[in-house]
Design brief:
This protein is mainly alpha-helical. The chain is about 60% helix and about 0% strand.
């Protein structure tokens, strides 16, 4: 992905983030999780974190003195 593609990132909604946070919470692995399960959970969480970051960028307001 190039820098130009960043401007075309789809809109991220609060509803989507809420659903993903519910389904894939940021939590510590359980003792009985396999290494594969842990890495899969990390990958899912990275996607949620990326979308949260994009949401924040899309909803940032710039305050200027006028």
């Amino acid at each position: 992905m190039t820098f130009e593609d960043e401007d075309k990132f789809p809109r991220v909604t609060k509803t989507l983030l809420f659903e993903l946070e519910t389904r894939f919470p940021n939590q510590c692995p359980r003792p009985d999780d396999t290494e594969r399960e842990i890495w899969m959970a990390v990958g899912r969480r990275q996607v949620v974190d990326l979308l949260k970051e994009k949401f924040d960028e899309q909803n940032k307001t710039v305050l200027t003195a006028e």
